[in-house]
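[job 4471] stage=fold_predict status=RUNNING
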Amino acid sequence: MAASGTRVFENPGLWRTMARRPAVLIALAVFVLILLSAVFASQLAPADPARMSVRARLIPPGSEHLMGTDAFGRDVLSRILFAGRVSLTIGVGVAVLATAAGIVLGMLGGYFRALDAPISRLIDAMMAFPDILLAISLVAIFGGSVSNVIIALSIVYTPRIARIVRAATLVIRELPFVEAARALGSSTVTIMRQHILRNIVSPVVVQATFIFAYSMLAEAGLSFLGVGVNPSVPTWGTMINEGRQTLDQAFYLIVFPGLAISLAVLSLQMIGDGLRDALDPRLAKEA
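[job 4471] inference complete, writing structure tokens
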């Protein structure tokens, strides 16, 4: 049982369960397509995303510019491709940092009884604030940059991981194989790494997938409000913020980046749902 959480993605049952859900496979394909388009944006972009042209202002979608141009004459398709790099980078960064911090806090609170109360109170206090308000406050303190937005959103979403890890650790630490490890003289670090951490991989992976999606949506909200990434850095959120100024003339400036955000977030949510159903034995039987 101590190794039940290892090699999550090497479990053939996981892929069989997900393969029986076409919606999850479609979502995975869509997200991979979005990811590849961001990685190869330099090769796919039809124009320089920063090149301005007064003569090409607000050209509607057509053969010359598939998604039109913005108020500065910049090609919208090119900007969406390059903006995807920043938005996805923020999503990955937040998911990794929040997961790492949440695992540390959750395992410390769940394993050491003396730390449980203060860590639990900290988690409850942070989750009492609405995510977007806490993120706005932190970004205002740190300043608007990609790294600061990642740090701020990581702080916001760390309690989600910590709460799950704490609850799982409280259960696992009382199981017979953990007691046996203590009796054999295993160190606390060894027990936490080899017996507890390995058994919480599955729920953490699922929650990290959701945090990836939440952070991209939160970044778009922050950028739309003008308190996120510097406006000179193209993200899907900043593009929507810029497009609302000319909404009556060029509605497509909001539609296309909004569609990119929607597809990315929705596909991640569906992938997370598929992973949750496949990794939870009870839900896997129902799937």
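[job 4471] summary: Residues 122 and 159 are 9 Å apart (CA to CA).
[job 4471] exit 0
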